[in-house]
């Protein structure tokens, strides 16, 4: 497909789109024209006659006209957002999210002194997985609803209510099941590392985990829904706002809820241990079946209830590995717990924005199973992150935004952590920035490959990509950051708290 641009300097998207129209090489099999989309898509061929009579029935989300776009219409879709508008919309939530990750790091550094965290070592193993679980579920919800908003499917109040109820119920079901699994994983991992005494805290850990996951997700879901509807109403792109705002307070809320419940249950475990049994019984035997019934009867979430478990559960175990890294690093480097949530949180926030925007772009300009002409499935890192395909526009903005942002977050956390005294020196600052940049490059490139591959195999990236990416962010960020601490100690430049 050849796209003519009237003004190539009007927007950075033009260079990405022209990359393909100017290329003399033979067309890539994944770079399809509109005619090829029509000829190769069995779904399209089967529904062609129906969609001519009823355009809204095609692909359940877009009309036939949106697939049979002319060059000018496709150009209008791709150039609708200007780079400066996208930057502003992403920068403000990014900074707010950074404040949230700083708060999470400070909270995590403080709660380590609690008796329950000293006695129940599995809690530190649980933290990254539980924070990742909250992020995965809420960010997937934000991505799904943002896509629906961008596709114009939020006009009927009745349908919107069904959509919201189904998604909240789905998140609660996933939170209950996944929190029980991750608490068991944390116990087993901690027993292997610290000894069999951890088994005595199994019910405490499970009750704390399930309360934290459900209560924090329930609160954040309503905040997210409000943000999505408000941004859509005032003509802003929810993809740029919802996921960072979800994470801005999510980590802090989750850590506060976890530490509060764990501390309370630990204080009564000898005299009122039955409370933990009651909590687990109510959630598993009463709350869970009710939400399952609600989700099964909801057309927007019924399919996800059966097919949406693999990414969530897989991400849990990846984040659990990050928890093991945190457990080991916190004992050796006390300040590690303060800064690792910032690196992991910011990386997860940025890659979630990229995955959400790329998924929305695919939903708006193509059909599942077909890669549209303005992007590619398999590309080199430079092409995916700098210039060559349309999603590279977002990737390079996120990369440029991350460096000054991480410097501000690092110095702010350092000042707060040390009572107003700046302790961080250049070796630590440079190693921190190096880790954050490498992590973000890995995540953004992985996001491009993952989202496009899922789309190629007719999987909805809104439901599957973000859990893998945020979990990968936790693991790569924690591992690389631990290596930087070991390196700094080897050259006698270790970070020292004042």
UniProtKB/TrEMBL annotation:
Membrane topology: Multi-pass membrane protein
Lineage top rank: taxon: Eukaryota
Transmembrane segments: 90-111, 164-189, 201-229, 241-262, 274-294, 306-326, 397-417, 429-448, 468-488
Region named Disordered: 1-32
Pfam families the UniProt entry points to: MgtE
Molecular-function GO terms, alphabetical: monoatomic cation transmembrane transporter activity
GO CC annotations on file: plasma membrane
Compartments in which it is found: Membrane
Compositionally biased residues, Low complexity: 9-23
Major place of residence: membrane
Keywords linked to the UniProt accession: Ion transport, Magnesium, Membrane, Transmembrane, Transmembrane helix, Transport
Domain SLC41A/MgtE integral membrane: 127-259, 341-483
Family: Belongs to the SLC41A transporter family.
PANTHER family: DIVALENT CATION TRANSPORTER SOLUTE CARRIER FAMILY 41, SOLUTE CARRIER FAMILY 41 MEMBER 1-LIKE PROTEIN
Official protein name in the record: SLC41A/MgtE integral membrane domain-containing protein
Organism: Dendroctonus ponderosae (Mountain pine beetle)
């Amino acid at each position: 497909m050849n796209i003519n641009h009237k003004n190539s300097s009007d927007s950075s998207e033009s260079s990405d789109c022209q990359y393909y129209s100017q290329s003399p090489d033979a067309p890539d099999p994944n770079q399809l024209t509109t005619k090829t989309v029509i000829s190769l898509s069995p779904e399209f061929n089967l529904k062609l006659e129906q969609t001519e009579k009823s355009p809204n029935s095609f692909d359940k989300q877009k009309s036939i006209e949106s697939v049979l776009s002319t060059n000018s219409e496709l150009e209008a879709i791709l150039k609708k957002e200007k780079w400066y508008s996208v930057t502003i919309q992403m920068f403000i939530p990014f900074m707010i999210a950074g404040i949230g990750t700083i708060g999470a790091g400070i909270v995590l550094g403080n709660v380590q002194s609690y008796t329950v965290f000293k006695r129940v070592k599995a809690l530190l193993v649980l933290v990254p997985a539980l924070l990742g679980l909250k992020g995965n579920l809420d960010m997937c919800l934000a991505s799904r609803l943002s896509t629906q908003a961008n596709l114009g499917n939020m006009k009927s109040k009745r349908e919107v209510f069904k959509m919201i109820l189904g998604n909240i119920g789905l998140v609660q079901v996933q939170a209950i099941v996944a929190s029980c699994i991750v608490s068991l994983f944390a116990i087993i991992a901690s027993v292997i590392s610290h000894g069999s005494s951890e088994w005595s805290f199994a019910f405490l850990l499970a009750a704390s985990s399930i309360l934290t996951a459900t209560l924090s997700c329930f609160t954040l879901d309503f905040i997210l829904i409000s943000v999505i509807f408000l941004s859509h109403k005032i003509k802003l792109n929810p993809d740029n706002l919802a996921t960072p705002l979800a994470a801005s307070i999510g980590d802090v809320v989750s850590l506060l809820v976890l530490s509060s419940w764990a501390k309370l249950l630990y204080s009564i475990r000898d005299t009122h241990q039955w409370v933990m049994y009651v909590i687990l019984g109510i959630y598993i035997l009463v709350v869970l079946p009710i939400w399952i019934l609600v989700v099964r009867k909801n057309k927007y979430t019924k399919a996800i209830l059966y097919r949406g478990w693999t990414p969530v559960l897989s991400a849990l175990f990846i984040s659990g590995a990050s928890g093991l890294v945190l457990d080991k690093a916190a004992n050796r480097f006390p300040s590690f717990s303060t800064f690792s949530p910032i690196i992991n949180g910011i990386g997860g926030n940025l890659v979630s924005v990229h995955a959400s925007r790329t998924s929305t772009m695919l939903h708006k300009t193509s059909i599942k199973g077909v890669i549209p002409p303005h992007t590619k499935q398999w590309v080199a890192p430079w092409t995916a992150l700098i210039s060559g395909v349309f999603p590279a526009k977002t990737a390079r903005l996120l990369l440029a935004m991350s460096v000054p942002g991480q410097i501000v977050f690092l110095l702010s956390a350092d000042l707060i952590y040390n009572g107003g005294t700046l302790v961080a020196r250049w070796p630590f600052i440079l190693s921190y920035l190096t880790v954050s940049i490498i992590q973000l490059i890995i995540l953004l490139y992985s996001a491009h490959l993952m989202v496009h591959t899922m789309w190629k195999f007719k999987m909805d990236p809104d439901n599957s990509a973000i859990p893998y990416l945020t979990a990968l962010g936790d693991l790569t960020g924690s591992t690389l950051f631990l290596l930087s601490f070991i390196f700094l100690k080897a050259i006698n430049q270790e970070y020292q708290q004042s």
